[in-house]
Amino acid sequence: MTPSPPASLLRSLGSFAVLFLVIMIGGSFFYAANSSAVMKAAPPERLGIASGVLRTFAGLGMVFSFTVAILVAAHAMPRGTAFAVFVGTTSLHGADAQAFTSGLSTAFYTLTGIMVLAAALSAVRGRPGAVRRTTPSG
Predict the structure, then answer these.
(1) How does the average pLDDT of the chain come out, rounded?
(2) Which residues, in sequence order, are CB contacts of 61 under 8 Å at separation 6+?
(3) 56-67 pLDDT per residue, tens
(4) Which of 24, 30, 36, 103 has CB 3.0 to 4.6 Å from 76, enough for a Cys bridge?
């Protein structure tokens, strides 16, 4: 008979599942709307280019977020723990596990801050199709 996981682990996994669900729902609303906005802004003869640029930047964004997460997490934990985690270890226990969890939390908070900043910049960029009026100088 295998021992059951501790209750704190089950609560943590439950919290993770709820947060992951929220992220996935939010992402599904964002990605469809963002792709539509980009494709509508492109002239019909440039749709292929717009689609390629959109997918390229989506891939770059994903790689960038992974890179930032790994760098922040590695910087937030002791060097020995970071080396063990990222080079490979069979198990993490005690202080190493706590340091790794703390490093991941720091990475998630950092990326959350970047997402909030991006959302704020997106909110203030103006309406699509809005005409900006300039007054002649002179």
Answers:
(1) 82
(2) none
(3) 999 999 999 899
(4) 103
3-state secondary structure of 11: helix
Q: What is the DSSP letter of 93?
A: -
Q: What does each C-alpha distance from 112 to 14, 40, 63, 119 come to in angstroms? A: 20, 29, 16, 10
DSSP 20-75: HHHHHHHHHHHHHHHHHHHHHHS-GGGHHHHHHHHHHHHHHHHHHHHHHHHHHHHH
Q: At what angle do helices 94-123 and 79-87 cross, to 10 degrees?
A: 80
Q: Which two tokens stand for residue 92?
A: 């993490």
Q: What is the number of H-type helices and E-type strands within the chain?
A: 4, 0
Nearest CA to 110 out of 69, 70, 75 is that of 69
Residues in the chain: 138
